[in-house]
Amino acid sequence: MTNGDEYFVSTCTHVNESAEIDASSRRRLSWFKKMYGRSLRIKIATMNGEPAGFIYVMPVEICPWGPLGRDLAVFPCLVAHSKVKGQGIGRALVAAAEAEAERQGKKGLVTYGYYHDFWFMPAPYFEKLGFEVAARRGDEAILWKVFDSSAEPPSFSERKHRLEPIPGKVIVDLFFNTFCLTSDVEAERVREVAAEFGDAVTLREYDAGDREVRERHGRSRGIFVNGEEIFWGHEAPREGIRDAISQALTQERK
Fold it and tell me: Which of 94, 175, 194, 228 would you label with 125, given CA atoms 20 to 30 Å apart?
């Protein structure tokens, strides 16, 4: 990644779409630069002189998405413009990630894939590129490609979070990471909406960028209101967050 690529990457291709995304991109870029010293690398694909996609490569120990493992590299996301679909961009980026992982002396390269009818990180695509399933949980899989036979298979973190109630209060537990644009944007929304309710709501934040936090709770992203998870896939909408808190407050006052 060069200076000229930073905005494209930090907005996750959402260039000039909103002030909200631009604010997140600045936080994300700061995180990228901090992690560069810990071997995070970002590879860019271009077509006709314009950025067409990118891939993150980082040691498993610093990856906010996990999984559990050691001496491995992870690419948690592979991003390519739909307009270049079928032109080998994804394959080329994965090859660049493999080369970077080997250059760093890692014993294998890991990613997450999904067995569902959706465009994001499809597991069968990575299997076609030579990755094998190391672990599976429902439609979600950890896939890896081994470079060294002594490599230990990666595994999922156990989801351990439990509500710690406070009588008379609504508890909002927020699991987030700055690496992911979706998680970072919705975390800001949760903070804004929770603040609207003043002392009636207690917000607890868990930064999955901290490996100890990630491994203790087994989550990289999530919003819980009085122990009930709310989830939209995309960034949680403010109105949805507000409604969930309002309903919980109504229950508390009964």
Answer: 175
Distance CA 97, CA 109 (A): 8
DSSP-assigned beta bridge partners for residue 56: 42
Residue 86 lies in a domain: yes
Q: Tens digit of pLDDT for each residue in 144-155?
A: 999 999 999 999
Which contiguous run of DSSP H or E holds residue 189? helix 181-196
75 in Cβ contact with 97 (< 8 Å): yes
Give me the CATH number covering residue 181: 3.40.30.10
Whole-angstrom distance, CA of residue 27 vs CA of residue 30: 5
Given a contact cutoff of 8 angstroms between Cβ atoms, the answer to whether 172 and 203 are in contact is yes
What tokens does 159 get? Answer: 């989801």
Domain that holds residue 185: 170-253
Within 8 A by CB and 6+ apart from 149, the residues are none
pTM of the model: 0.92
CA distance 13 to 217: 31
Q: What is the DSSP code string of 93-114?
A: HHHHHHHHHHHTT-SEEEEEEE
